[in-house]
Amino acid sequence: MGGALLLSNIYSQTKSRALFIDEAMPDVSFGKLIYYKDSTATRLDFPKKLIILDFWFPNCSACIEMFPIMDSLQQQFNKHLQVIMVTRHSKDEVLPVIHKWEQQYHRKWVLPIVINDTILHKLFKHRAEPNYVWIAPENRFVAQTASFFITKEILASYIDNIPNEIIKSGYPLDSLYIK
User: Fold this and answer.
1) CA geometry: angle 22, 28, 34, nearest 5 deg
2) Of the candidates 50, 40, 53, which has an alpha carbon nearest to the alpha carbon of residue 3?
3) CA dihedral of residues 147, 148, 153, 154 (deg, nearest 10)
4) Where are the domains of the chain?
5) pLDDT score recorded for residue 46
6) Which positions of the chain have pLDDT values less than 70?
7) Is 36 exposed, middle or buried (0-12, 13-18, 19+ CB in 10 A)?
């Protein structure tokens, strides 16, 4: 209950509006989480990492087709990337989709999933899913993309150029080490 109140207070501080590119990500919790060591997390739980929020829903075939790609990218760029799946749907609606994926690919699901989300959907408005929000390591909302921008080449290029982008954006390079 305290977590819900905290989220509500934090969101009200953003004046109930969607974020724009280059704005700082507010201190919101990524929670109610499943497939993560805790039931909630914050940006600070993923220091020095690019976070990609993957907005999806259980009946979206295009969303589900991206799961193997997101899983592969997480494995390949694990040191520099954290993919977090985000859905408005309940655990009961999500689990059958994940179990089917695990059976099809003979792999255990490892990506954290925010279920029953309302806050992140309000912060990052979008008209279609899948939809991907990129939050830079210094806690800036840097991109909102469709699936065709989610490739290993684009991610590798972005990750390789993070220090340059931070400097060009006017942030101090040590902002990568926010604690």
Assistant:
1) 120
2) 40
3) -80
4) 2-9+24-177
5) 93
6) 1-16, 166-179
7) middle
